Amino acid sequence: MTPDYSSQLRAAVAAARTAGEFLRARFADVKQVNAEMPHDLKLQLDRDTQQLIARCLLAEYPDYAILGEEGETGSMSAEALWIVDPIDGTVNYFYGIPIFCVSIALQVKDRVVLGCVYDPMQDECFTAVVGGAALLNGRAIRVSARQRMAEAVVFVGHGSHDGSGAEGVRRFAHISSQVRKVRILGSAALTLCYIATGRFDAYIENRINLWDFAAARVILECAGGKLEFTPEVAHARQGSVIAWNGQLPIHAALEMPTPQA
To answer: pTM for the full model?
Structure first.
């Protein structure tokens, strides 16, 4: 008998919407930067939003643990684990670009069983439970049926920000020449959800964290798409991702020509 995770999904949606409203209300404010990296930054609002999400979720499920971009709460050996990205698209948020989301997944016994991704600026809430349909604001969604790379809209990570350097730029150029358009949103979770609803067709990223894609992966796969995650080392939370609508010849398209001597 398949477990019923409907109450956990309701809790995730409520927490995501609460966090989304919190972020939308502060979107135009001056943001406090806690840390700056070459291609990223951390805001105090990242921390504040994760704490808000944690309070919402732990009020409903006090025995569950939380793994988030901003740290851990509870025992990581707990049977159930919420995986949280409080602001997926922090750089966009900081610069006033309204493309970001709140991402919440639930992992039970090493299996991610549900996902919720909420875009507060568009009021779009993507949800799915393993074995069920992927939904956008309660309406069923499905990946595109596009089979030709020439028709595809794809996201291709490239450059030093994803750890690929010159090779990543070469891969970007190689894919770009094959597809209709390349789009880079700045949010992994939203990109995967856009594949789930047929707006995008594929996503290639050399370096991504578990909390960036855990929730959206459930949504994508329930919508008929596919995602392959290759950890940097065994059991790592960071690695590379190839995601697509399940129709495109993505692996053949990724085969790089041998550089000319």
So the answer is: 0.93
